[in-house]
Specification:
The protein has about 400 residues and is α/β, with parallel strands linked by helices. The chain has 13 helices and eight strands. It folds into two domains: about 60 residues, no CATH class; about 230 residues, no CATH class. It is about 35% helix and about 15% strand. It starts with about 30 loop residues before the first strand and ends with a helix. The structure holds zinc ion (ZN).
């Protein structure tokens, strides 16, 4: 940010001047000098004339409240190339906790960017959805990460997480261990249907964002899916009118490129080889569901906006371009991605993205133990704002 930086709005979410945008510039502030930091030099400070709160240039930077700077682009690249957090920490000469902190910040930046770009997307393709199977904490807590993917572009539009009950063949000892663990945490038996209904809401958002006349969703024949679709009155109504169509294909059908589920199979394979925690027999599995989803958000940023659509054509289009995203807008967003801090109060998010931003998914065996930094909500002092207001995109 240049020395001529002007605060875009008051940093206090409870102030009348917090909701200013580029078309309605904020002017009710005064300069109140600066403070010096070793990393950022002189940092100008401001005070809001309406509420009296003070803030600085730093309040509006991605690196607010940090004492060391690292490249977020380097972070996403390393994370998406199967490097573990500890390996990144060793390369940067910092503790794994510092890397996790940057992952959280970076994830919120890309979630906000996704949200801004959604208004300019014009997808015309069919969609496919499925549950990617992985685990968190231990193999006694398998999960499904539902993914919603563009059939042609392989652009990932949305993801949602659900912890499952461990099933399948187990030794007597394992069964006893499961029973013991289930006294402390038990997966929601309706979790899959609930998670898929959140994916269905994202499908609806794509239909309305793109002003599409109709949209088709492909899945396998899991019985939870039609149940979850019918559970949402808006989705059920549009299915009835024929504007939304749900089509299924057996999961045992050959996994070729002509299979309508090829896009989800493709993403499955990519996740399995590129994200360390999802590699088969990994020793670096996720320990916290919220952190797992933050890392996934960063990976999908790399996949959607940075990676070429086909690796054999490194200069070819990205998945976002093939999905019909406005190229100029994407370029502009990418240039500013790691500069201006993303604010929840200035971002419209669907529920899965909001859950990731607020780290409000429960980690098995660690309920109520979620670490949420104050700045996630984006307030300076005082209590958390009404999250329903944030979810509505205020
Ligand atoms: Zn104010």
């Amino acid at each position: 940010m240049s020395p001529s930086f002007l605060p875009p709005f008051c940093a206090n979410p409870d102030c009348v001047h917090h909701s200013h945008g580029p078309k309605d510039p904020y002017r009710s502030f005064r300069s109140i000098g600066s403070y010096h930091t070793r990393i950022f030099g002189d940092v100008p400070r401001f005070q809001c004339k309406a509420c009296g709160r003070s803030f600085s240039v730093q309040t509006f930077r991605v690196d607010y409240w940090v004492k060391r700077r690292f490249s977020y682009e380097d972070l996403t690249h390393r994370l998406s190339s199967c490097e573990s957090l500890r390996a990144i920490g060793r390369a940067w000469r910092v503790a794994g906790k510092s890397v996790s902190n940057r992952v959280g910040r970076a994830a919120r930046q890309v979630l906000a960017m996704d949200s801004r770009l959604a208004s300019a997307r014009r997808p015309t393709e069919d969609l496919a959805a499925d549950g990617f199977e992985s685990f968190c904490v231990s193999q006694f807590f398998p999960n499904n990460i539902h993914i919603l993917v563009g059939a042609e572009s392989q652009f990932v539009y949305a993801t949602d997480h659900v912890t499952l009950r461990r099933k399948g063949r187990m030794t007597l000892e394992q069964k006893e261990r499961r029973a013991e663990l289930e006294r402390r945490y038990r997966a929601d038996p309706k979790g899959v249907a609930k998670s898929f209904s959140r994916i269905a809401s994202e499908w609806l958002r794509i239909l309305s964002d793109g002003s599409l006349p109709a949209s088709t969703l492909w899945t396998d024949e899991k019985r939870d899916y039609p149940r979850a679709l019918r559970a949402s009155p808006s989705v059920a109504a549009l299915l009835g009118q024929g504007r939304l169509a749900h089509r299924t294909i057996p999961s045992r059908a050959p996994r070729t490129m002509t299979n309508p589920l090829f896009p989800v199979n493709y993403i499955d394979r990519e996740l399995r080889k590129n994200l360390h925690e999802h590699v088969r027999e990994t020793t670096c599995w996720g320990r916290n569901v919220s952190s797992q989803m933050e890392r996934l958000s960063l990976y999908l940023y790399q996949h959607n906006y940075r990676k070429p659509y086909r690796v054999r054509k490194p200069r070819g289009p990205t998945h976002a371009e093939v999905a019909g995203y406005n190229l100029a807008m994407v370029k502009e967003e990418l240039e500013r991605l790691w500069m201006d801090r993303a604010w929840l109060t200035h971002t419209v998010l669907g529920q899965p993205a909001l859950d990731t931003w607020l780290r409000r998914r429960t980690t098995p065996l660690r309920p109520g133990d979620e670490y949420r930094q104050r700045h996630i909500w984006g307030w300076i002092r005082g209590g958390p704002r009404d999250l329903a207001v944030c979810a509505a995109g205020w």
